[in-house]
UniProtKB/TrEMBL annotation:
Protein known as: ornithine carbamoyltransferase
Enzyme Commission number(s): 2.1.3.3
Family the entry assigns: Belongs to the aspartate/ornithine carbamoyltransferase superfamily. OTCase family.
Pathway involvement of the protein, from the record: Nitrogen metabolism; urea cycle; L-citrulline from L-ornithine and carbamoyl phosphate: step 1/1
Annotated GO MF terms: amino acid binding; ornithine carbamoyltransferase activity
Single GO biological process annotation from the record: urea cycle
Ranges for domain Aspartate/ornithine carbamoyltransferase Asp/Orn-binding: 112-263
Subunit structure: Homotrimer.
Keywords in alphabetical order: Amino-acid biosynthesis, Arginine biosynthesis, Transferase, Urea cycle
InterPro entries: Asp/Orn_carbamoyltranf_P-bd, Asp/Orn_carbamoylTrfase, Asp/Orn_carbamoylTrfase_sf, Asp_carbamoyltransf_Asp/Orn-bd, Orn/put_carbamltrans
Length: 264
């Protein structure tokens, strides 16, 4: 990227994605240009299409962290340079790359036959894991409370396209998902934009906090490990797991940089 400018357009707050993107661009000899939601007209006084045309006429590429997935698709449609999805409501591609690298490092590049259990809200991260992990021959189980357990039809269509339904378990029982699990994963119960739902969500997810006792009683493998894309809140996973020997969360966070480096 020597001498090239990468526009980093973030409509939502970010720590890992922003730091990883800026440092990766710099390491490759490029110039990262951060544009926050309050800095430019994106989708406010200017259409996404017009913004994409203008930015791509001056920058050599850009990453965009948006709301609706349709926004990243529209930006890509009207851009003259490559566009990287830094997060949308449907997918989080750079996160799944870091998760995969972390798992490949831990399991020496072999995921076939492993079981990964997701305990928490269905969101863009669980969507990524759902469409990706079974393609490597891994089982993937999702446990979410009723009312928070819907899989987006666009995501399930990808599962059907890959014919990996037999490797997927959808349940409302954390214990069922955790049975024989090699990897335990959770994420925020309250995503950005859902703050008004906090009280209802905390009530609905009661009993979903990841603890050693919960996972072991459910019959996970003795060697189970833990992932979380961060930021983490105490109600999602307790300190004993999060900071314990089973936790891979900080190597997982660092791998955001190395995988974004490969994308660029």
């Amino acid at each position: 990227l020597y001498g090239q400018t990468i526009a980093l357009i973030f409509n939502k707050r970010s720590t890992r994605t922003r730091v990883a993107s800026e440092t990766a661009t710099k390491l490759l000899g490029g110039h990262p240009m951060f544009l926050g939601g309050q800095d430019i007209q994106l989708g406010v006084n200017e259409t996404l299409a017009d913004s994409a045309k203008v930015i791509s006429s001056m920058a050599d590429g850009f990453m965009a962290r948006v709301g609706a997935h349709e926004e990243i698709e529209e930006l890509a449609q009207h851009s003259r340079v490559p566009v990287v999805n830094a997060l949308s409501d449907l997918y989080h591609p750079t996160q799944i790359l870091a998760d995969l690298l972390t798992l490949f490092e831990h399991y020496s590049g072999y995921l076939k036959g492993k079981k990964i259990a997701w305990v928490g809200d269905t969101n863009n991260i669980s969507n990524e894991l759902l469409v990706t992990l079974p393609r490597f021959g891994a089982e993937f189980a999702i446990a979410s409370p009723k009312g928070y357990d819907k899989v987006d039809p666009r995501v399930w269509a990808k599962v059907e396209e890959a014919q990996t339904q037999s490797l997927v378990t959808l349940t409302n029982s954390p214990a069922e998902a955790l049975k024989d699990a090699d990897v335990v994963v959770t994420d925020t119960w309250i995503s950005m934009g859902q703050e008004e739902e906090k009280a209802a969500r905390l009530k609905a997810f009661s009993g979903y906090q990841i603890t050693n006792e919960m996972v072991n009683e459910a019959g996970a493998k003795d060697s189970w490990v833990f992932l979380h894309c961060l930021p983490r809140k105490q109600e999602e996973v307790n300190d004993e797991v999060f900071y314990g020997d089973r936790s891979l969360v900080f190597p997982e966070a660092e791998n955001r940089k190395w995988t974004i480096l490969s994308v660029f």
